[in-house]
Amino acid sequence: MERDDYLANVKIRMPEKRYIHTIGVMETAISLAKKYGEDEKSAETAAILHDIAKYADENWMREVVQTKGLDPRLLGWGSEILHGPVGAWIAQHEFNITNEDILNAIRFHTTGRAGMSKLEKIIYIADMIEPNRNFPGVENLRQIANENLELAMESCVSHSITFLVQTKQPIFPASVECFNDIIS
């Protein structure tokens, strides 16, 4: 499949606002891939498909986790956490994506994980800083991403965890593992 085919497939699965976000993530990921020497086509594909399951039925996503051998820790979480791993499963089984780096970039774009590849970091960061995002500190994160990928990843993960702590939301274990890995 090519870009237009992927875009057409994701557009029908999400509201227009999320589709605009997806385009922003795609453009940001391609730009970061160019800057940091990552495969641009892989960044494009992972970015387009990163939210493919964002609006899938939550019960269906739990069923996928249970029946397809996904991380059982996911079952205690809602769609914010489920949509990444289930999206990777969709990318693999519906779109025949076999590149494990692309699948992991989709799988961990929300939580992060210890030992992330450059492509995984690019998608995680692009999802957070794409041009349509508007939250306190995003401009600083964009500037850091333009200067240093590793520092940008550390800053984005720190921002995310700080937000979750301040709003008294639970933190998925892979996010804590990601943070610990980055600062060690």
UniProtKB/TrEMBL annotation:
Which controlled-vocabulary keywords does the entry list?
A: Hydrolase, Iron, Metal-binding, Nucleotide-binding
At the top level, the lineage of the source is: Bacteria
NCBIfam families, A to Z = bis(5'-nucleosyl)-tetraphosphatase (symmetrical) YqeK, HDIG
**Class in the EC hierarchy, top level:** hydrolase
Q: What is its EC number?
A: 3.6.1.41
Q: Under which name does UniProt file this protein?
A: bis(5'-nucleosyl)-tetraphosphatase (symmetrical)
Which organism's genome codes for this protein? Ureibacillus xyleni
The record's annotation in PROSITE patterns points to: HD
The GO terms this record gives for MF are: bis(5'-nucleosyl)-tetraphosphatase (symmetrical) activity; metal ion binding; nucleotide binding
Q: Which reaction does it catalyse?
A: P(1),P(4)-bis(5'-adenosyl) tetraphosphate + H2O = 2 ADP + 2 H(+)
Q: Where is the HD domain?
A: 18-132
